Amino acid sequence: MNATPASPHSLSPAAPVEIDSSCRLPVIFLFACAAFWLVLASGFGLIASLKLHAPSLWADSPWLTYGRVTAVQINALIYGFAAQAALGVALWLIARLGRTLLVLPGHIVVGAICWNAGVKIGLFGILIGDSTGYEWLEMPGYASPILLVAYSFIGVCALLTFQQRREPALYVSQWFLLAALFWFPWIYSTAQLLLVFFPVRGVLQASVDWWYINNLSQVWFGFIGLAAIFYFLPKLAGGPLYSNYLAILAFWTLALFGGWGGIPHSAPLPAWMPSLSTVFTVLGIVPLIALAINFKLTLAGAPVKLKDNLPLQFVVFGAAAYLLAGALAIFDSLPQVARIIHFSFFTPGRTQLFLLGFLAMTTFGAMYHLAPPLMQAEWPSAKMPKLHLRLATLGIVLYAAPLLLGGIQQGLALNDPNKPFTDASRSSLMFFRVSTLGELLIALGNIALAFNLGWLLVRCCRACCVPGAAGKQTAAMAQ
């Protein structure tokens, strides 16, 4: 009688060392590419910031006009850094939580190479003036098929890894990750079809763009970032997650309401559309309260002190930034508030708080925790991660806070009929100068991360080339 094949769930769980070995090449490759694009985005961000102080800076170069530099900065940050760092963390989490080996890691590397090629082509297209003109979708249409093909390589391997998991019970992070894997190709392909390849008419273009931005940030990035927090916060703190039910409540409310906000009240649309968008945005207070309770009570019973764990400090900062950015989004959606601050620095400040404060800091914590076991080596410099934490924390505060406060003052001045427009702009100039200083500190911290990661990769490559060095390094790690 033939034996029935065993299901993947009935197989014995893979050892953590085996899982790390299967994830090593694709995850480290994604982290290294993300660090490169992060430094590049910081450089273009500084150029854009300096051009606001000195408009004549490189004014004779069409490649470095403010519009092109700003578009390159945000696209490099989103598609170069954030997407690859988030996917690297997601792949490791799917394999580790499923207690199984990562499926087809070589195919993931091929997908990552194609993704980076698509980003390079897209950013070059922006610099030569071939931008689409849609916010967060500025890369030209010939770059988007490359990104979708690249994502299909990575996404299919991630789904196969999830399907072959050897742990049948699902942790809450897996809910967020599985939904995120399907969310990006849906929203990105839909936005590209309706805006670039078969463009809709009139104000519907702006509506589709707002829909895409909100889904990309609040759902796709939000789900992957929250999945990382739900895993690393209790693990690094040394205690269990306070409540799975609160986490699942946050998942369903974000999935139902999170992607339908973001339409400003000043939009030239039927009144019901901005009003409904406000309702969905305000309903975001439900997951925010659930997440705040879960985060606080998880940390309250943790035996590990926050100051003793560097990756935990990054993750806690990211969790706090997510809650603050969500509260500010609700505040910004109110009609009485939006008519004052919508066309001010407030909105860019809130966006950067979400991208840099929440997503970047959370992935930084994951990278600092994952890189040593994946590479089987400690960080070459123990001081640089601490320096990065200080520079990133101070930089984000000095970057986002002045834009938020200055945006309120700027909005009040712009709505004052007795004050000229030039005076309203000058009144917030001091806030913008402080934010430039914060951006510089963030860039220095990003360089420290990229240098330390590159140094780690070089050391590991040299250890693999020298006979016996790898074994000694592994033994030192075990001790």
What is the number of helices? 16
Q: Radius of gyration from the CA trace?
A: 23 Å
Query: What is the helix/strand order?
Result: HHHHHHHHHHHHHHHH
User: Mean pLDDT, as a whole number?
Assistant: 91
Overall, the morphology is: globular
Note the main sheet: none
Structural class: mainly alpha
* Annotation, overall tally of beta strands: 0
Q: Strand portion, in percent?
A: under 5%
Labels describing this entry:
about 475 residues; mainly alpha; 16 helices; about 75% helix; globular; disordered N terminus; disordered C terminus
Describe, in plain words, how this protein is organized in 3D:
The chain is an all-alpha fold and 479 residues long. The protein has 16 helices and no strands. It has helices at residues 16-53, 66-98, 105-127, 144-163, 172-197, 204-237, 244-257, 272-282, 285-300, 310-333, 335-341, 346-375, 383-414, 421-427, 429-465, 469-478. Helix 1 packs antiparallel against helix 2 (66-98). It starts with 15 loop residues before the first helix and ends with a helix.
Topology:
Blueprint: H1 16-53, H2 66-98, H3 105-127, H4 144-163, H5 172-197, H6 204-237, H7 244-257, H8 272-282, H9 285-300, H10 310-333, H11 335-341, H12 346-375, H13 383-414, H14 421-427, H15 429-465, H16 469-478
Helix pairs in contact: 1-2, 1-3, 1-12, 1-15, 2-3, 2-4, 2-6, 2-12, 3-4, 4-5, 5-6, 6-7, 6-10, 6-12, 7-9, 8-10, 9-10, 10-12, 10-13, 12-13, 13-14, 13-15
